[in-house]
Amino acid sequence: MSKPAQFSFAADLYMLQAILKSEDGKSKDWQLEYLFPWSCYRQIIEWILNNGTQIGVSEFEGVEAIHESATHVKIVFPNEREQDKMHKFFEMFNFKRKQAQGVDRSFPPMPDIYQGGPKPNVDAIKRYIYSIENAFDGGSQVVEIPSGANWKFHKFEF
């Protein structure tokens, strides 16, 4: 998987977890905990957390990586300020990703999480997250990205 694809899918895992939390209606708190496959953590997230100034934000402080399971690591931000640094980085990255659409095939297309509806399609998001995690874990060379209405998915091969 190319570095642009790895960063793109890490950004999607991060952003979509916050969307799922907001859609569950149970909590209005800031999202301060995120789960990532170990391979995604080692390849992307750990590097981001160790290189704040290199990516355009101040150094991360107090962020914990907790061994959640054999397959996942939980990233816990101590407060909104630290979480917002990661959010800012991924927003900047996704801006670059959008500019690369149709020009640089190493960047996957942006997901359409609404799938033609008025609200994010939670089932499509969960399917997409599973597909990303499976690819990071080496179980697949394809990520199915939501693209358009009625459960359409684009197969991004790497």
List the keywords.
single chain; 158 residues; alpha+beta; three-stranded antiparallel β-sheet; two-stranded antiparallel ribbon; 5 strands; 45% helix; globular
Give the arrangement of secondary structure elements:
Blueprint: H1 3-24, E1 33-37, H2 38-50, E2 64-67, E3 72-76, H3 80-100, H4 122-136, E4 142-146, E5 153-157
Antiparallel strand pairs: 1-3, 2-3, 4-5
Helix pairs in contact: 1-3, 1-4
Description of the structure:
With about 160 residues, the chain is α+β, with helices and mostly antiparallel strands. The protein has one domain. About 45% of the residues lie in helices and about 15% in strands. The protein is built from 4 helices and 5 strands. A 3-stranded antiparallel β-sheet has the order 1-3-2. It has a two-stranded antiparallel sheet with strand order 4-5. Helix 1 packs across helix 3 and helix 1 packs antiparallel against helix 4. The mean pLDDT is about 95.
Q: What is this structure, in a nutshell?
A:
By secondary structure, the protein is an alpha+beta fold. Helix content is 45%, strand content 15%.
Mean pLDDT: 94
Pattern of helices and strands: HEHEEHHEE
Proportion of strand residues = 15-25%
Q: Identify the overall geometry.
A: globular
Main sheet, how many strands, which sense, barrel? Answer: 3 strands, antiparallel
Number of strands: 5
* Structural class estimated from helices and strands: alpha+beta
H/I helix tally:
4
Spatial strand arrangement across the major sheet: 1-3-2
The domain count comes to 1
What distance separates the N and C termini?
A: 5 Å
**Helical content class:** 40-55%
Q: Spans of 5+ residues with little confidence (pLDDT < 50)?
A: none
Radius of gyration: 15 Å
